[in-house]
């Protein structure tokens, strides 16, 4: 299993999309935000904009780029292809399963090991270069973060635009802590 460098960061999932609302797997399609998703992004920006981020890393996908632009209109945004959502192949545009078959490779899709590898590589590149960056991406990216820090990708779905403080092991705790972030 890949490991994240023990450096803190904040993770933010993009705003609501029509796929999220319909409980469908979006994956690689470049879907837009709903009006609610745009509003969510502007609202979270009130809090995020008060923080002097060392770096704002954003998935190259439209829904993440739009969320970051609406939330942080005055910030420099930096785009990373390695933070793109997983390609779910034949499962894209189908109903989200419970539990999701994370470790299976869907027909025409991206293998979990490949997906996790590119995500961890991208995050470690950021963590090597920046102190406490903000990462704006997708629920699949958060599943990778959970897998490498908690030992599994399962659990409650991360909410749209609900910032998560990703804190490495340290003097206060033995394991990574993933908790709601507050300025």
Descriptive notes:
- This protein has a six-stranded mixed sheet, sandwiched between helices.
- The mean pLDDT is 96.
- Helix content is 32%, strand content 13%.
- The protein has five helices and six strands; from the N terminus they run βααβαβαβαββ.
- It starts with 8 loop residues before the first strand and ends with a strand.
- It has a single domain, classed as Phosphoglycerate mutase-like (Rossmann fold, 3-Layer(aba) Sandwich), CATH 3.40.50.
- The protein is globular.
- It has 183 residues and is an alpha/beta fold.
Compact overview of the structure:
The chain has 183 residues and is an alpha/beta fold. It contains five helices and six strands.
Secondary structure layout:
Elements: E1 9-13, H1 18-22, H2 35-48, E2 56-59, H3 62-71, E3 78-80, H4 112-129, E4 134-137, H5 139-150, E5 164-167, E6 177-180
Helix pairs in contact: 2-3
GO molecular function: alpha-ribazole phosphatase activity; fructose-2,6-bisphosphate 2-phosphatase activity
Protein name: Adenosylcobalamin/alpha-ribazole phosphatase
Organism: Kushneria phyllosphaerae
């Amino acid at each position: 299993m890949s490991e994240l460098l023990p450096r803190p960061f904040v993770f933010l999932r993009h705003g609501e999309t029509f796929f999220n609302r319909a409980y469908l797997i979006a994956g690689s399609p470049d879907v837009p935000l709903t009006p609610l998703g745009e509003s969510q992004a502007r609202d979270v920006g009130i809090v995020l904009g008060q923080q002097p981020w060392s770096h704002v890393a954003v998935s190259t996908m439209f829904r993440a780029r739009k969320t970051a632009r609406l939330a942080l209109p005055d910030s420099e945004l930096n785009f990373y292809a390695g933070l793109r959502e997983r390609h779910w192949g034949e499962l894209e545009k189908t109903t989200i399963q419970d539990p999701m078959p994370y470790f299976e490779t869907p027909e025409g899709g991206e293998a979990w090991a490949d997906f996790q590898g590119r995500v961890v590589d991208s995050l470690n590149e950021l963590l090597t270069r920046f102190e406490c960056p903000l990462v704006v991406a997708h629920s699949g990216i958060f599943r990778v973060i959970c897998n490498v820090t908690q030992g599994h990708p399962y659990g409650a779905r991360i909410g749209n635009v609900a910032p998560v403080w990703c804190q490495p092991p340290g003097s206060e705790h033995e394991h990574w802590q993933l908790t709601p972030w507050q300025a």
